[in-house]
């Protein structure tokens, strides 16, 4: 210890001694207190840090140690049985110590606890008790210590009803008991009671408990007769005696009913004849007999007909009777007013009557229709009319009567007259009035009671009479020279038949009224029917007669008689129809092949040879005879129309009377040849073609045209190509022209042939010569340099190593990286809340209250001081509902209220002034009460939430006042998410509820939600705290989201490796699956990982799918090959650099000090001699090898061996250089696009391009192979791809590379499924909550299946997805997926569906094609669950209405039943909510049940008087 430390210690010791302060005891006990079961071992460690100690020890009745010179000592007892054990650890200190001798006593608690406890009752045997009597329960606990830690809990059923604690300080075991009294009610029948003993030794010891066996009681009561207090029992008809006078008791009483000393069944519904005197006899625990009168009540009943008919002004015979008990009151109503029925009815009494019979029970209504009949009244509104011809005339006839009158008319009937009767009125309408409508029109109106009539006259001005003749048929169509006989009949109209004198046909052979078509060759025949009438005279009517003739022939020809036409020029066709009639009914149709078409232009149908100005012969509507006709059209033809047949068709459309189908005639076909100009195929003949010297190139000129064009090659005279038909073989540069000529036009195409040299052989030779030359020159110069500089020579004999120079070389890697220190600032948010102080009361009354306003907790005390500055005070005082205070002549008064027990306290301060009299002020007092409980009652937070879904959370605040000052804060994590304030005028405590709508977000996961109730007042309020609910942990399920969501494109480094990062965040933790571009990569990969470093690293598109129960997301990685420099120049430069480095290194190691090049020690290579070693050297080396065994240290042997090694080294260098420079530039094929996704049956096109000149470029394919020798690109094209195993390969043979290279197309052919269906497995009907079920989704005919993802949805939320990446089939297959579901009640009515999605990568369709199944509706059965299952206690105010709400949810819908503890309670309806003003105090049990379960809830109704 240093001198300064000793000094400080001495100084502190002196200071403490001088001041009389002693340090605490330097003893530490571990543990300071122990709890030990009786007979168990115990140990306590006593230690000290004081160095100036003479020793320490333990004093104890068991395990004492005495004094020992140690700094720690353990007190140990193997079996502790001393109930009064009180060990003490002491320490003896040296005089120089700062402490005095001291000790520490650990707390030792020795306990014992019984295995079992027992319960007994003071009641009778078997647990039988009588209702209303008091019984004691005793719980016996034997051999327990310490008893002061014991508590006994009493349970009634599952609810704790009493807790008993003990203050006995005894440490030794005792036998203890706990008693509890009970006064059973009938609701306690069958209830089990038990007691539990709890020994709480926390925190050092255990918490022990033991429970007694259950004690079930049986409660005897009754019999109770519900109607015992009544003398008269009133029942409604149909009710039973036992329903209104129920007898209860336990044991169940025997009940009998007597009427006139005869037994009667109380379960039989009563009728009105069952009223009388009854006696009830009930025998149970006691015997009860009761007599009472029974009145059967029934409502009013009306006996009256629905309708009654009476004659006007005659007495009626209507009888309507209303009866009921009690006697009803009868009222008659008509048109909403009270009415009385007279003895003699008139037409004004007709109408609907409403008969009302009402009593105290109910009311009944009856509707009676009274109909009074009377004869028609005089006709009105029928007047004479004078109209013009062709106009419309209306005549109206109107009369009233009951029954409604029937109308009839007398007039000269014609077809244009229509009579309509509606709404008691008759209308006669004349359409297009003619002379035949002139005359008198008489209207008759009649019913059962009489009839009337009226006449009017109609005059038509300027009308000419029409001939009332009908010809049947009205039109006749006859074929020219037809053999069939047709007839026409001429008859008068029905209205004119009575006026007919004579009727006949004129101008033709007739047979009375019948005309026959004997002559069918007369084009001008016009049959006429003539008739003579008595009044109107003679008139005629013509038969619509048509004579037709089909064409003799029909032909088609070009207008200019050309057999051929030039493409895109207008071309006219003419159709000639010979001898056809009638011409106006002819229609011409044009056909191209077998299809009709609309021509470019179409001329009118004309008569052949007829000039337009000759109207008589050219008018097709006038000429009836056969004519020659023609139709001309204009068309434009194209090369595709060559060989197409044109035809025309003539059709006679003679209307409905003509032949069916209409006669048709088709021309012979006309073939037209379309000529078009030549078109040269420039795809096979580009404008520029390279030709390498020594390699002739073929130029193929192909041209399409009609007539076929003639091909001719044109070139300068100094060229000597070889011409063979359309092919020109060239080996010289220049411009060559291909000329294609036919009758239509001539066209040419120039080709520029460019001569290129093939420098590859020259380059290879040049490189070889250059390498040799550089090597010779370099070795020569290097050897001279070494020889002239006189470098030291080294001998390998007896080599010795020199001492190290102790120099250290640093490689520079120990330099530290520059680091930047990151700093951060913490922004602290400071919030200040200030509450303004209350202002003093200000009014005309000079009074000041202190405090100016009071906020006091319910039950607390407060004081009020009232003072005044007025000098005219006689007296002043304070009045409250709790008392008053008054002073005389003083300017102040105060009062203290010990307990604020009312919610509306308004202390009044008043002063009596000498002059102004009395004035007063009222103090504002707010009495508040903090909530009894704040709780979150929404169970939705007990399970995981789903992101995006909305949840309503309910916070219940119980018994708080005043509600207008209440604020509820909703906390989510460390922030307040929502605050709700309440409006209300109530100052007394109320129960309120706050609802918070939470939309789940992923950021909410792991946070806690709770609600907090706070009362806000102006100014500070002491002891005002906030009440918090319990917190709920929020778990949010959300779909995966990638850390880096964008798709990634990267290059595959040459010889390097790459890693794909697909990390995603989601809950549950996402599961990863990878899809590889090459099947060989599938077998060696662990797919369920977020990052991937493929063992076989190949270019292509990699797909990563991160999925969990909430959804899945896909991310694509496109890996491309790094661009390589394939130019010859780069290869040459690299070769020279590599060769130079090799030569320099070889010179450093192989040049001798004499300036010669040596491949071995002692054998020199002189640049003056040959470059390569001669045969003599090789022979010498062979001879030396034979003598190797004789002289192992011979230097010649080493020289020969090293010489051969050098020769091999030079040969390897030269071979490597030659191979490198002659190997070419590699494969340079580019596919555009490199990956293709195409639907089944859809077209596809891919281009293959060469990056340098190529000899042959083509596609190898089973469907559409193609190749070219001129172009640098070739296309693979299929109009409809249906081959599932198609694998197109592009190949190329280059000029600079003799080998063929290939590129395989990454082709994906897909097909969406034919159907997607969903169904349950091995189950039908509704599902039951909590059970597990399987849903099966089946997908038919889908390809390729490895790109398929089956997504399961519940509503709009994805719950599961299934991928099939392990399958490799490329053709359509059938797959399925199974979803395991355990439904809850929240899923009742939910819809499940599965969606088949083909995710085909970036090249596939966007969005990915999907097919969705039909939804499967889930019906979930679950047992009843009350909205609030806890028992409810309600206060009943006499005369007030009370509601017991027992609403429960369940499927099937619950059925409700009610039971009451009060025997006098009336029968209650089996409904969810029971509302009544006549409920009695007691316990009401509601039972809600369905097919799954039955649950009960209790309501305790307590009596409360008004104002209490």
Helix content: under 10%
Query: What value does the Rg take, in angstroms?
Result: 61 Å
Oligomer: single chain
Helix count?
Answer: 7
Uncertain stretches: 1-22, 789-843, 1124-1129, 1159-1225
Strand content: over 45%
CA-CA gap between termini = 82 Å
Shape: flat
| Tally of DSSP β-strands | 121
Description of the structure:
The chain is mainly β and 1508 residues long. It is 8% helix and 46% strand. The chain is flat and about 150 Å long. It starts with a helix and ends with a strand. Mean pLDDT is 80; it is low at 1-22, 789-843, 1124-1129 and 1159-1225.
Write the SSE topology.
Blueprint: H1 3-19, E1 28-30, E2 33-37, E3 42-47, E4 53-59, E5 66-68, E6 72-77, E7 88-93, E8 102-104, E9 107-111, E10 118-121, E11 128-130, E12 135-144, E13 150-156, E14 159-165, E15 174-182, E16 192-200, E17 207-211, E18 215-216, E19 218-225, E20 232-236, H2 241-244, E21 247-250, E22 254-259, E23 262-264, E24 276-283, E25 287-303, E26 307-311, E27 321-325, E28 329-334, E29 337-338, E30 351-358, E31 363-373, E32 385-388, E33 393-398, E34 406-410, E35 417-422, E36 425-430, E37 439-447, E38 450-461, E39 469-472, E40 475-479, E41 487-492, E42 500-506, E43 510-511, E44 514-516, E45 528-533, E46 537-542, E47 544-548, E48 553-558, E49 564-566, E50 570-580, E51 586-592, E52 595-596, E53 601-602, E54 606-607, H3 615-618, E55 627-636, E56 645-652, E57 664-666, E58 670-671, E59 673-680, E60 688-692, E61 697-700, E62 703-706, E63 710-714, E64 722-724, E65 727-730, E66 734-741, E67 746-756, H4 760-788, E68 848-850, E69 853-857, E70 862-867, E71 873-880, E72 883-888, E73 892-897, E74 908-913, E75 917-922, E76 924-928, ...
Parallel strand pairs: 2-9, 11-19, 20-25, 26-31, 32-38, 40-47, 49-59, 60-67, 69-76, 78-86, 87-93, 97-104, 106-114, 115-121
Antiparallel strand pairs: 1-3, 3-6, 4-5, 4-7, 7-8, 10-12, 12-15, 13-14, 13-16, 16-17, 16-18, 19-21, 22-23, 22-24, 24-25, 25-27, 28-29, 28-30, 30-31, 33-36, 34-37, 35-36, 37-38, 39-41, 41-44, 42-45, 43-44, 45-46, 48-50, 50-55, 51-52, 51-56, 53-55, 54-55, 56-57, 56-58, 59-62, 61-65, 63-66, 64-65, ...
Helix pairs in contact: 4-7, 5-7, 6-7
């Amino acid at each position: 210890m240093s001198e300064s430390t000793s000094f400080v210690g001495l100084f502190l010791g002196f200071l403490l001694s001088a001041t009389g302060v002693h340090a605490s005891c330097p003893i530490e006990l571990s543990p300071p207190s122990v709890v030990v079961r009786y007979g168990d071992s115990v140990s306590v460690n006593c230690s000290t840090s004081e160095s100036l100690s003479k020793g320490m020890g333990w004093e104890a009745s068991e395990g004492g140690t005495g004094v020992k010179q140690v700094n720690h000592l353990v007190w140990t007892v193997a079996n502790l049985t001393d109930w009064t054990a009180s060990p003490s650890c002491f320490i003896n200190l040296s005089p120089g110590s700062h402490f005095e001798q001291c000790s520490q006593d650990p707390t030792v608690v020795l306990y014992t606890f019984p295995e079992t406890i027992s319960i007994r009752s003071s009641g009778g045997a078997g647990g039988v008790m009588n209702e209303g009597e008091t019984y004691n329960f005793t719980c016996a606990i034997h051999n327990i210590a310490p008893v002061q830690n014991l508590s006994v809990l009493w349970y009634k059923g599952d609810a704790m009803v009493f807790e008993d604690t003990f203050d006995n300080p005894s440490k030794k075991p005792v036998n203890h008991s706990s008693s509890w009294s009970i006064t059973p009610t009938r609701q306690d029948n069958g209830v089990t009671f038990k007691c539990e003993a709890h020994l709480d030794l926390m925190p050092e010891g255990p918490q022990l408990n033991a429970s007694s066996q259950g004690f079930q009681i049986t409660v005897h009561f009754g019999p109770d007769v519900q109607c015992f207090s009544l003398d008269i029992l009133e029942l409604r008809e149909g009710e039973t005696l036992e329903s209104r006078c129920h007898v209860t008791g336990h044991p169940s009483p025997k009940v009998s009913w007597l009427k006139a000393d005869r037994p009667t069944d109380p379960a039989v519904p009563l009728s009105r004849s069952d009223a009388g005197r009854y006696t009830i006899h009930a025998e149970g625990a006691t015997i009860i007999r009761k007599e009472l009168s029974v009145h059967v009540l029934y409502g009013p009943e009306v006996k009256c007909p629905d309708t009654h008919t009476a004659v006007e002004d005659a007495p009626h015979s209507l009888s309507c009777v209303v009866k009921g008990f009690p006697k009803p009151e009868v009222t008659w109503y008509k048109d909403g007013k009270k009415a009385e029925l007279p003895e003699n009815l008139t037409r004004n009494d007709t109408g609907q009557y409403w008969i009302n019979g009402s009593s105290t029970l109910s009311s009944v209504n009856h509707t009676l229709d009274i109909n009074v009949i009377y004869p028609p009244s005089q006709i009105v509104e029928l007047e004479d009319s004078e109209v013009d011809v062709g106009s419309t005339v209306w005549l109206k006839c109107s009369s009233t009567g009951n029954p409604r009158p029937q109308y009839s008319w007398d007039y000269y009937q014609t077809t244009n007259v229509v009579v309509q009767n509606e709404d008691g009125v008759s209308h006669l309408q004349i359409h297009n009035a003619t002379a035949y409508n002139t005359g008198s029109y008489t209207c008759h109106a009649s019913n059962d009671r009489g009839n009337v009539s009226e006449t009017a006259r109609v005059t038509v001005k300027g009308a000419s009479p029409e001939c009332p003749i009908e010809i049947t048929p009205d039109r006749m169509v006859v074929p020219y020279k037809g053999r069939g006989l047709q007839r026409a009949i001429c008859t008068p109209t029905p209205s004119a038949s009575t006026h007919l004198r004579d009727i006949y046909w004129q101008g033709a052979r007739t047979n009375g009224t019948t005309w026959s078509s004997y002559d069918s060759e007369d084009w001008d025949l016009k049959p006429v029917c003539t008739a003579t009438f008595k009044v109107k005279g003679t008139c005629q009517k013509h038969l619509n007669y048509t004579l037709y003739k089909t064409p003799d022939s029909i032909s088609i020809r070009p207008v200019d008689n050309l057999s051929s036409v030039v493409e895109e020029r207008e071309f006219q066709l003419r159709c000639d129809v010979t001898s056809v009639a009638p011409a106006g009914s002819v229609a011409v149709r044009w056909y191209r092949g077998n299809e009709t078409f609309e021509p470019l232009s179409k001329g009118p149908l004309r008569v052949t040879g007829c000039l337009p100005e000759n109207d008589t012969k050219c008018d097709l509507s006038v000429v009836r005879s056969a004519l020659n006709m023609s139709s001309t059209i204009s068309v434009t033809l194209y090369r595709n129309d060559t060989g197409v047949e044109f035809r025309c068709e003539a059709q006679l459309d003679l209307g409905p009377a003509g032949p069916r189908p209409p006669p048709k005639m088709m021309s012979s076909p006309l073939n037209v040849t379309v000529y078009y100009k030549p078109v040269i195929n420039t795809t096979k003949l580009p404008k520029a073609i390279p030709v390498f010297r020594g390699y002739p190139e073929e130029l193929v000129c192909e041209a399409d045209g009609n007539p076929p064009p003639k091909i001719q090659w044109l070139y300068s005279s100094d060229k000597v190509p070889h011409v063979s038909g359309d092919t020109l073989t060239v080996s010289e540069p220049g411009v060559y022209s291909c000329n294609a000529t036919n009758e239509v036009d001539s066209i040419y195409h120039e080709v520029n042939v460019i001569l290129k040299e093939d420098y590859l052989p020259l380059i290879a030779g040049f490189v070889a010569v250059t390498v040799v030359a550089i090597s010779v020159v370099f070795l020569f110069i290097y050897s001279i340099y070494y020889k002239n500089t006189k470098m030291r020579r080294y001998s390998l004999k007896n080599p010795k190593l020199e001492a190290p120079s102790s120099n250290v070389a640093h490689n520079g890697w120990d330099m530290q990286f520059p680091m930047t220190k990151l700093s951060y600032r913490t922004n602290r948010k400071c919030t200040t809340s200030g509450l303004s102080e209350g202002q003093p009361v200000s009014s005309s009354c000079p009074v000041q209250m202190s405090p100016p306003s009071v906020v006091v907790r319910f039950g607390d005390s407060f004081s009020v001081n009232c003072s005044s500055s007025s000098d005219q005070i006689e007296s002043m005082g304070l009045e409250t509902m709790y008392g008053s205070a008054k002073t005389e002549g003083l300017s102040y008064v105060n009062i203290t209220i010990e307990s604020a027990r009312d919610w509306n306290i308004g202390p009044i301060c008043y002063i009596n002034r000498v002059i102004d009299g009395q004035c007063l002020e009222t103090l504002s007092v707010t009495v508040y009460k903090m909530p009894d409980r704040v709780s979150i009652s929404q169970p939705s937070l007990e399970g995981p939430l789903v992101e995006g879904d909305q949840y309503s959370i309910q916070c219940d605040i119980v018994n708080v006042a005043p509600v207008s000052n209440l604020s509820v804060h909703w906390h989510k994590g460390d922030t307040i998410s929502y605050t709700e304030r309440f409006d209300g005028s109530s100052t007394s405590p109320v129960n309120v509820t706050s609802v918070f709508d939470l939309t789940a977000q992923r950021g909410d996961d792991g946070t806690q939600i709770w609600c907090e109730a706070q009362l806000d007042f102006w100014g500070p309020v002491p002891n005002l705290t906030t009440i918090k609910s319990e917190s709920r942990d929020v778990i949010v399920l959300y779909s995966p989201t990638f850390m880096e969501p964008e798709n990634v494109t990267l290059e595959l480094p040459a010889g390097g490796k790459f890693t794909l990062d697909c990390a995603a965040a989601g809950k549950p933790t996402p599961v990863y699956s990878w899809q590889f571009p090459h099947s060989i990569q599938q077998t060696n990969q662990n797919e369920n990982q977020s990052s991937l470093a493929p063992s076989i690293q190949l270019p292509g598109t990699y797909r990563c799918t991160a999925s969990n129960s909430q959804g899945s997301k896909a991310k694509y990685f496109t890996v491309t090959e790094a661009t390589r420099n394939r130019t010859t120049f780069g290869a040459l430069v690299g070769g020279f650099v590599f060769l130079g480095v090799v030569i320099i290194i070889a010179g450093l190691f192989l040049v001798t000090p004499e300036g010669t090049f040596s491949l071995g020690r002692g054998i020199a290579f002189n640049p003056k001699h040959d470059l390569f070693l001669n045969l003599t050297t090789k022979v010498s080396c062979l001879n030396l090898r034979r003598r190797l065994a004789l002289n192992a240290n011979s230097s010649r042997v080493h020289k020969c061996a090293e010489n051969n090694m050098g020769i091999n080294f030079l040969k390897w260098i030269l071979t490597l250089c030659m191979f490198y420079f002659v190997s070419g530039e590699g494969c340079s094929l580019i596919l555009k696009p490199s990956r293709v996704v195409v639907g089944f049956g859809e077209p596809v096109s891919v281009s293959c391009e060469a990056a340098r000149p190529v000899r042959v470029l083509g596609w190898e394919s089973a469907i559409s192979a193609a190749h070219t020798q001129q172009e640098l690109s070739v296309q693979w094209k299929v109009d409809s791809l249906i081959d599932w195993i198609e694998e197109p390969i592009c190949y190329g043979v280059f000029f600079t590379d003799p080998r063929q290279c290939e590129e395989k197309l990454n082709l994906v052919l897909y097909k969406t499924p034919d159907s997607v269906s969903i169904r349950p497995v091995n189950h039908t009907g509704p599902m039951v909550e909590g059970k597990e079920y399987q849903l099966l989704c089946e997908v038919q005919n889908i390809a390729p299946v490895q790109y398929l993802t089956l997504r399961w949805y519940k509503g709009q939320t994805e719950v599961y997805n299934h991928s099939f990446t392990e399958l490799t089939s490329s053709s359509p297959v059938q797959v399925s997926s199974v979803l395991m579901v355990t439904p809850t009640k929240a899923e009742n009515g939910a819809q499940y569906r599965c969606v088949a999605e083909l995710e085909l990568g970036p090249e596939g369709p966007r969005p990915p094609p999907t097919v969705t199944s039909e939804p499967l509706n889930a019906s979930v059965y679950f047992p009843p669950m009350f909205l609030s299952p806890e028992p409810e206690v309600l206060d009943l105010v006499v005369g007030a209405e009370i509601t017991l709400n027992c609403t429960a949810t369940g499927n099937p819908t619950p059925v409700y039943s009610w039971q009451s503890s009060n025997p006098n309670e009336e029968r209650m309806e089996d409904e969810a909510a029971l509302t009544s003003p006549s409920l009695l105090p007691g316990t009401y049990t509601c039972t809600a049940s369905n097919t799954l379960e039955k649950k009960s809830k209790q309501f305790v109704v307590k009596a409360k008087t008004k104002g209490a």
